[in-house]
Design brief:
Blueprint (H helix, E strand, L loop, with lengths): L5 E6 L3 H11 L4 E6 L2 H10 L4 E4 L2 E2 L2 E2 H20 L2
Helix pairs in contact: 2-3
């Protein structure tokens, strides 16, 4: 049986909330990363091949859906650039 390793990014401003979420989902097969602002979230999502992104309800001036939409577009754009090289 092959165990899948997952890279998970939690996006939220509260370190306390990150620690709570991380303690629930972290195990030997998951790597959990934290971004506490949009710039860090963008960097982490581009640099790491993430399997899951969890975003809190609000981040800076945006809601979770806005953060998802922008990150999704950037991830797709960078993916297309990488495979077309």
């Amino acid at each position: 049986m092959k165990i899948l390793k997952s890279k998970i990014l939690y996006i939220g401003e509260s370190e306390k909330e990150y620690n709570r979420i991380s303690s629930i989902i972290k195990n030997p097969w998951n790597q959990v990363f934290w971004a506490n602002n949009f710039e860090s979230a963008m960097k982490e999502s581009i640099m790491k091949s993430l399997d899951l992104i969890i975003c809190c309800e609000k981040l800076e001036e945006m809601d979770g859906f806005q953060v998802y939409t922008i990150l999704n577009n950037e991830i797709l754009k960078n993916y297309h650039i990488a495979i077309n090289k």
